[in-house]
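Example S7 (structure tokens).
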């Protein structure tokens, strides 16, 4: 009898610049290999003919696992799962990752999905693989949703496993050359922690990780990062942690460890400004010296009332200035994310945000901004309020697939109000770009900058935006950069469909 011990893991195509190998699949692969299963990983980012490859690899596989985020990745997941169900209907298809975990029942109701792994996947997937290989019952596997004789069944939740108990992700499965060709830089996507202690109302981290910060020890991080960077000759490490410096001593120990190793590479992370501000100036200089080149912050707004509505009281405006200042001392670039159109935000709130952020951008040339129109993702705590306010909630996997990410789907932000916000945004970004480009130029260029920038800054101060001749001119001379990745600071090429 044929014993199947091969598992195929698939990462569907996504929008935006490629980041590197999908860490989720490398993490699952390491645990599966420890349990003596063979893993084939197929990432659509580098495997253009993924349909054919999956068909070939599935012939003798135990199951196919697909990782899914909300939005366009669902399209590739459905494409592959339906194809598999036509040529190998016996092959179990397992969905995992953020979208299926947030909406397990909705996901499982699709005919081409046999199981959903909810939340952290390493241990659940091994138990599923063992159960399938040995034809055991699935009903004792925590964290699993499955079809029991066609009935959607949700087993109990699984307790999150401390990261230090899990193996090093299977980075050897990564074709670093292929990603380098695609990204233009040899990069390692790596995580030192999962979870964030905060509970911002628009974020699903709290739903997934229950506000528990779960981190690898500093020693392990330093040893692993140095080993991986050296072994795979990567120039950069993009940390995928939700909030890297939650445990300050650990964060600083990591920086110190990297610095004293003498191995040189750039690294980037995301954080909240309060943790960064708890670091001294010397601490932030240490980050810079150890190679930190970019930090992303979800600052979102500078209006106190909007920050309160977002349940973001840990995010203070004075600390945004302080973060920018300290980062500048450390020679570190910073991206501040901004959210506009949040339920309850008024035009006055927007004006405050544009004015304060323009001031920050003017004082600190190391700061860039990434403005977004509020997008309600599945499972966020304010859905009841959004439904009451008339936001159409997608009802199925296919409807979430077509969700216009980054575009406006808010009924309270339409027509003239939306057009005005778009114009304000363009002025704000143009002003910031001029600040950053012409800071250290000759006296003459500084004078030109002063002349060009004076009317723009007047508009931002007085909130007057009619007859936007500077924007018409800028269409010719400056390309306004709309959004950036908080993970790397890299420019995001695709514009939100109807912003600016
Ligand atoms: C890296 C990243 C990306 C990368 C991933 C590509 C890559 N090569 O790594 C890219 C650029 C694709 C991306 C895109 C987006 N992202 Co993103 N991203 C992240 C980030 C920062 C890290 C994810 C990660 O790798 N974590 C480490 C691994 C080990 O954990 P994991 O992915 O959760 O995987 C575990 C489990 O989920 C599970 N699992 C995952 N997949 C599978 C599959 C199977 C079969 C099984 C069994 C289990 C399983 O097991 C894994 C191990 O425990 C998270 C935030 C975070 N800190 O997690 C946001 C996050 C996942 N992204 C988010 C968002 C909003 C987006 C975008 C919608 C943004 C946008 N507006 O465009 C897009 C969606 C895709 C698109 N536009 O096409 C949200 C969640 C969205 C959602 N509901 O799906 C998050 C949580 C950020 C946040 N706090 O809001 N993202
Ligand atoms: S601080 Fe960032 S990661 Fe943490 S809950 Fe808020 S938005 Fe999510």
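Recovered sequence:
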């Amino acid at each position: 009898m044929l014993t199947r011990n091969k598992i195929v893991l698939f990462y569907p195509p996504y929008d935006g610049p490629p980041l590197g190998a999908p860490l989720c699949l490398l993490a699952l692969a390491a645990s599966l290999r420890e349990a003596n299963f063979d893993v084939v990983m197929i990432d659509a980012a580098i495997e253009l003919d993924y349909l054919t490859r999956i068909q070939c690899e599935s012939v003798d596989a135990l199951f196919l696992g697909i990782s899914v985020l909300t939005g366009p990745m669902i399209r590739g997941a459905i494409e592959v799962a339906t194809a598999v169900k036509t040529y190998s209907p016996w092959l179990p298809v397992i969905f995992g990752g953020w979208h299926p975990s947030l909406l397990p029942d909705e996901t499982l109701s699709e005919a081409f999905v046999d199981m959903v792994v909810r939340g952290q996947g390493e241990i659940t997937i091994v138990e599923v693989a063992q159960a399938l290989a040995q034809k055991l019952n699935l009903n004792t596997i925590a964290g699993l949703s499955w079809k029991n004789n066609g009935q959607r069944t949700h087993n109990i939740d699984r307790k999150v496993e401390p990261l230090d108990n899990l193996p090093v992700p299977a980075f050897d499965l990564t074709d670093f050359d292929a990603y380098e060709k695609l990204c233009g830089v040899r990069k390692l996507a790596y995580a030192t922690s999962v979870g964030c202690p905060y509970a911002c109302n628009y974020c699903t981290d709290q739903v997934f990780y229950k506000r528990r910060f779960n981190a690898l020890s500093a020693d392990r991080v330093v040893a692993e990062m140095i080993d991986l960077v050296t072994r795979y000759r990567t120039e950069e490490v993009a940390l995928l942690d939700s909030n890297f410096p939650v445990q300050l001593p650990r964060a600083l120990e990591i920086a110190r460890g990297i610095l004293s190793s003498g191995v040189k590479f750039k690294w980037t992370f995301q954080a909240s400004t309060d943790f960064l501000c708890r670091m001294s100036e010397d601490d932030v200089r240490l980050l810079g010296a150890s190679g930190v080149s970019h930090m992303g912050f979800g600052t979102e707004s500078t209006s106190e009332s909007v920050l309160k509505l977002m349940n973001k009281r840990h995010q203070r405006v004075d600390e945004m200035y302080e973060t920018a200042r300290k980062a500048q001392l450390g020679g570190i670039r910073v991206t501040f994310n901004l959210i506009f159109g949040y339920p309850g935000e008024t035009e006055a709130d927007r004006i405050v945000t544009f004015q304060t952020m323009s001031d920050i951008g003017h004082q600190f040339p190391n700061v860039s901004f990434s403005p977004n129109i509020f997008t309600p993702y599945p499972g966020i705590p304010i859905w009841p309020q959004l439904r009451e306010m008339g936001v159409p909630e997608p009802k199925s996997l296919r409807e979430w697939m077509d969700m216009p990410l980054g575009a406006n789907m808010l009924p309270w932000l339409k027509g003239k109000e939306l057009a005005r916000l778009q114009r304000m945004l363009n002025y704000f970004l143009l002003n910031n770009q001029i600040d950053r480009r012409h800071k250290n130029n000759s006296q003459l260029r500084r004078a030109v900058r002063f002349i060009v920038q004076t009317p723009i800054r007047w508009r931002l101060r007085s909130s007057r935006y009619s007859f936007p001749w500077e924007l018409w001119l800028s269409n010719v001379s400056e390309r306004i950069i709309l959004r950036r990745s908080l993970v790397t600071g890299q420019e995001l090429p695709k514009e939100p469909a109807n912003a600016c």
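Notes on this example. Confidence is low (pLDDT under 50) at residues 495-500.
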